[in-house]
Amino acid sequence: MSKIPNSLMATSRLKVPAPYLYVAIGAASLDLFGRGYSAAPCPETHDYDSSLYMSQILLCLQSSPISWSPFTIVGYSLGGALGADFTSYFPALIKGLVLVAPGGLIRDKHISFSSKLLYQTPSLLPETLVEKLVAKRLWTGSKPTSNSNNNNAVEPQPGSVENAETTTTTTTTTARPSSSSSSKDKSTNAAVYLSSTHLLLPHNPASTVSAVVDWQLTHHAGFVPAFISTIRHAPIHNQHARWRAIREHIEKKNTELKRVWMVLGETDPIIIADELLEDAVGVLGEEIARWRVLEGVGHEVGVENADDIVDVVVRKVLGKKVKSTRAGRARSHHG
Fold it and tell me: What is the pLDDT of residues 154-200, one digit of tens each?
């Protein structure tokens, strides 16, 4: 499973559980503009909006020697928002859509004042200052490690868009008894952000998500400007109309797509599972929306729960009859 933050892929092929190895799946995974080794168009002349990212996807499809029509899109975080957006405009190209902790329907109430100040356009702050502040918020200072249980704390602000980029989050329950508390109300959930040391590449201790983000901050001059423009212009919030368009295409049989699958983390403090499902079912309808909510998993779902995602792709979307090896426990599922 490709686990680069905010990734977008046709299907997945890395770290596929053994029962799925016989399933022949052509796969393509791309680093979005300004990430990984991908170049970054200048934000002064190109907004990182729906049009730019759709152009990137179409360029990849057109330049490939493989015929990709129709195909399945698997999008994680920002990639999920872009996958849904692309499907709403090019339904005839799509036969499957799997959205993993996707953006697109994030409610505005989760945008902090500091984020509004940093990412508003036109900005009240000099752009050079915005870039320095955003880079500081993205930096985790992670150290290479081979111990997957040794995490480093990062940005503590719940709902921070930077935390979505560094990917891994978790929610813990902390007991807070007080004299006024009843015996049935002794604890509360608190969002705690952790920088995962889960290795993206086997045997490479410098391949954690946080280490990759820090590498980009150090070596990729286009990363921060691309990130800022993406937060400002990409289809991350209030995309109900575009998701509703997917439903209309399905109902009018403009596409081979029949269901939209979502894989969510129960404790994800960035993509709130209950809120997303309420909004997604509202625009897609109960017949189209399908989901799996993984128990005790946060926004790291796309990084550390590849087996569960591949299970949905292979068994639910592609319809292959193979034994499930899902590692995570589903709090709830539909379909």
Answer: 444 545 667 777 765 655 544 444 444 444 444 445 555 565 677 88
Q: How does 256-293 read in b/e, with b if 16+ C-beta sit within 10 Å?
A: bbebbbbbbbbbbbbbbbeebbebbbebbeeebbbbbb
Enter the DSSP assignment of 319: -
Looking at every residue in the chain, the average pLDDT score rounds to 80
Measure the CA–CA gap between 267 and 121, rounded to whole angstroms.
Answer: 31
For residue 229, give the amino acid letter: S
Helix (H, G, I), strand (E, B) or coil at 224: helix
DSSP string, 255-282: SS---EEEEEETT-SSS-HHHHHHHHHH
Give the whole-angstrom CA distance, residue 311 versus residue 318.
10
Q: Which residue has the tokens 């918020």?
A: 137
* 13 has a pLDDT exceeding 70: no
Longest dimension (CA), the chain: 69
As given in the structure block, the two tokens for residue 242 are 């575009």
Owner of token pair 């990430």: 35
Task: Report, as an integer, the average pLDDT of 128-147.
Answer: 78
Q: How many domains does the chain have?
A: 1
Q: What distance in Å separates the CA atoms of residue 257 and residue 250, rounded to the nearest whole number?
A: 6
**CATH code of the domain in which 230 resides:** 3.40.50.1820
**Cα separation of 72 and 149, whole Å?**
33
Does some domain include residue 27? yes
Q: What contacts 194, CB < 8 A, 6 or more positions away?
A: 151, 152, 153, 154, 168, 169, 170
